[in-house]
UniProtKB/TrEMBL annotation:
Name of the protein: Uncharacterized protein
Lineage top rank: taxon: Bacteria
């Protein structure tokens, strides 16, 4: 970089990314993160789902910090950092590394979660939007309705929560950008 220290936005970006990496959410996923499904057709209720994942408090705390990277009203959002990396303050190599990481992130967001609900293939982006803006930090009407629809099926709830937890762990900001 063209200066001796990081600008405040990058300092905050690194601080928040480090906070996510050391969160109770990530610790829980590293310790034990399981989704076991068994089917026993001899039982009246043949489907048995056992899930171990971060609890709601871990998820809520993670999302509170995670929003620094995805909401454009934050200087640390990926979109806003793009403006910095497009400036004359960074070298071409740094700009290329950032753009490559951002392209990889956008590719990840467009990938399928391998979940299909009512004939709709759910991408990582959709999963993130529905959970965050339909339940965890906002309740935008259309997204809240979709979240409630996903959760209306007892046999599907844990699949969605597990996939969302996996998504959050895969979206690890430090691993993507540094």
């Amino acid at each position: 970089m063209a200066f001796d220290s990081h600008p405040p936005e990058l300092e905050l970006f690194i601080e928040k990314a480090d906070k996510l990496e050391n969160s109770g959410f990530v610790k829980k996923i590293k310790e034990e993160f399981t989704l076991d499904i068994s089917i026993d057709l001899s039982r009246e209720d043949p489907l048995n789902i056992r899930s171990i994942r971060p609890n709601q408090e871990n998820i809520d705390a993670f999302i509170l910090t995670f929003r620094f990277f995805i909401q454009d009203n934050e200087a640390t959002s990926i979109r806003n950092l793009q403006k910095f990396f497009d400036s004359e303050f960074v070298t071409s190599e740094e700009k290329n590394k950032f753009n490559s990481a951002r392209n990889n992130l956008n590719s990840f967001l467009s990938e399928s979660t391998n979940l299909i609900f009512k004939d709709e293939n759910i991408s990582n982006q959709m999963l993130m939007d529905i959970f965050i803006y339909g339940e965890l930090s906002h309740a935008k009407k259309s997204k809240k309705e979709k979240f409630d629809l996903w959760m209306s099926r007892d046999d599907a709830q844990e699949f969605f929560w597990h996939k969302f937890s996996h998504f959050c762990n895969q979206f690890n900001i430090l691993r993507i950008f540094f």
